[in-house]
Amino acid sequence: MRLTTKGRFAVTAMIDLALREAHGPVTLAGISQRQKISLSYLEQLFGKLRRFNIVESTRGPGGGYTLARKSDEISVADIIVAVDEPLDATQCGGKGNCHSDEDQHGHCMTHDLWSNLNLKMVEYLSSVSLRDLVQQQEGRAVVIQDMRQKKIKVESSKATKTAPALAAKKEVPAKAPLVNSVFNLARQS
Q1: Cα separations (Å) of 178 from 182, 183, 188, 189?
Q2: Which of 19, 101, 109, 159 has a C-alpha 20 to 30 A away from that of 51?
């Protein structure tokens, strides 16, 4: 079996989402930043996950993604199948025509071995829930930050840094009146 980056990234992103959803919807930009996965790639993956009713999206400020089902009801196999990741170790894609379409004995000598491996992989990945993976990460004491709170803190610290600059700007003395000014001539008369 060859599990490509599509399946790996989808599972990684789902663990990240499940770890952080208690703080509200999780943004793809946050997942992208933490997991070093392209934002456009995550958008594609989450579109597929949404169609399979694995995640839900919330639009607008404070929006993002949440799980559509409980984490113990989502298996790793569900995630991988949702993003179109084939779980197939056979050379023929499970069709049984390992050697050629015309061959009467299309199966290769190891076809049954790889077919049985496919069944075991699906069985195993179906037995592992997203909750299991989250608990595993929590056992490793993964630091969970809510990026929105961090952003608010950054903005408030920016406000305090710019406040003295604004105060200094307000204290600038008034400009001396222009000698040629019409208003200045009116005052002189």
Answers
A1: 9, 9, 13, 16
A2: 19
The pTM score is 0.67
Classify residue 53 by its DSSP letter.
T
pLDDT tens for each residue of 1-12? 557 789 999 999
Contacts of 115 (CB under 8 A, 6+ apart): 90, 94
Return the exposure string of 74-107: e unless at least 16 CB atoms fall within 10 Å of the residue's CB, then b. Answer: bbbbbbbbbbebbbbbbebeeeebbeeeeeeeeb
Q: What confidence tens digit (pLDDT) does each residue in 151-171 have?
A: 444 444 444 444 555 444 555
Distances (CA, A) of 91 to 40, 48, 164: 31, 26, 69
The residue written with tokens 């989402």 in the block is: 17
Element (H, E) at 180: none
As a residue count, the chain comes to: 189
Place of tokens 């015309």: 102
Give the Cα-Cα-Cα angle 97, 48, 82 (nearest 5 degrees).
45
Q: How far apart are CA 143 and CA 182, in angstroms?
A: 67
Tokens 């061959």 map to which residue?
A: 103
Q: Tokens representing 83?
A: 């993003």
